[in-house]
């Protein structure tokens, strides 16, 4: 089948409304990409080595892609992912690519399929949909492109028009790669670290005790000292700020803040180090530390982003054999109003504190997140994330939050991706959908076209700069 991107894709079917959307999109299509939250490895930009092969680049590390094939009965080893518990043979890159092409039909109508079509057509000039018959030819075409200077990571960074790219980093990372990029006169991009302390705050994390010890060693304090633990976390945050960080990210199952006294927290900390906390106490300590992170954000200015609502590693055997981020993370019901009240009681009305709330439970957009952002100066609505960063879900999101909170209480689009080549496709999708939503309001007489032109530019540019203090 021919692969031919419709220039009016995602625009309204009605011709008059489509004309408005087309004009709005034209005003933002070429604006720089601001990506203040994502998971691209910064070392690819420092080394600037050619990407390895099509399967490694587009399949193996993209759990959006692998999960659908796994659901269809494809073993992860057939996609080039090694089994850590056995000597099962692992498919070669070409074999993995053939398997992917043979299952390309699975992605029809999905966000992954939409992004991949954009990548195939715009980046590689591919004009045919993948299938079993053309798999080898497509592999060779993409492989040949990857050997050229135009497909080096830095060249793509410039080609994509990326102005800001944030990474996600362990609190004890020395950020040497970020320092090297700043010092490199041949690289003009802005690559920012992000403080991601989950494994240092939640006693249920597998390496919590070891992480606490690492913090204590860096800080020169005793591992048993709760005061030293808090001091070390604040110190590592300052280290990140000094290296350009603008935000701290928190991936939690539920967005819970618990206000404990210092003595109560210290007692739980001692029991956490010994591994003797009950599940309820573990939840309470993690909730207290989320509140502590908010306090520190007030002090040091880091934007606090909260990504809750995903049950990680839902299938134990898959996790043990193939590791995390291999497609078996599942959304759960999430609530914000009561669980976050202690945090908002303390800090919600402070205008310099920025709290960005994301959701994968879309029932909370109109019920909780938009009303919170519509009152508290500190609260901003995170863009549709993970399972919801898809065309129809993005339009539902806009409809859910706009009537309560308007357009100016949102974060701007967040691509939140490890898949470097998908970044322009994702941002282009968001711009087209914003144009579509605004065009409908224009045609319904709810806003005029001049206002829509201003709003769409602000959604792409001014809002992420403001919310993430860029």
What is the level 1 CATH name of the largest domain?
Answer: Alpha Beta
The number of strands is 9
Give the overall average pLDDT. Answer: 97
Strand order of the biggest β-sheet: 4-5-8-9
The level of helicity is 40-55%
End-to-end C-alpha gap: 43 Å
Question: Which structural class should the secondary elements be placed in?
Answer: alpha/beta
Domain module count: 2
Counting DSSP H or I runs of 4 or more residues, the number of helices is 20
Any guess at the CATH architecture of the largest domain?
Alpha-Beta Barrel
Largest sheet: 4 strands, parallel
Instruction: Report the uncertain regions.
Output: none
Radius of gyration: 23 Å
Concise synopsis of the structure shown:
It is built from 20 helices and 9 strands. By secondary structure, the protein is of the alpha/beta class. It has a 4-stranded parallel beta sheet, with helices on one face.
Key phrases:
alpha/beta; TIM Barrel; 4-stranded parallel beta sheet; 20 helices; globular
Characterize the structure shown.
The model has no long low-confidence stretch (mean pLDDT 97). The strands form three sheets. Strands 4-5-8-9 form a four-stranded parallel β-sheet, with helices on one face. It has a three-stranded parallel β-sheet with strand order 1-2-3. Helices cover 49% and strands 7% of the residues. The chain contains 20 helices and nine strands. It is α/β, with parallel strands linked by helices and 470 residues long. It has two domains: 50-151, uronate isomerase, domain 2, chain A (Orthogonal Bundle); 154-467, Metal-dependent hydrolases (TIM Barrel), CATH 3.20.20. It is globular, with a radius of gyration of 23 Å. Helix 9 links the parallel strand 2 and strand 3 (190-192). Helix 3 (54-60) crosses helix 5 and helix 11 (208-219) packs across helix 12 (226-242). It has helices at 15-26, 43-47, 54-60, 63-71, 93-102, 111-124, 135-146, 153-160, 176-183, 198-201, 208-219, 226-242, 262-274, 279-300, 316-322, 341-347, 364-373, 391-405, 423-443, 449-467; strands at 33-35, 162-166, 190-192, 247-252, 303-308, 310-311, 330-331, 355-357, 379-381.
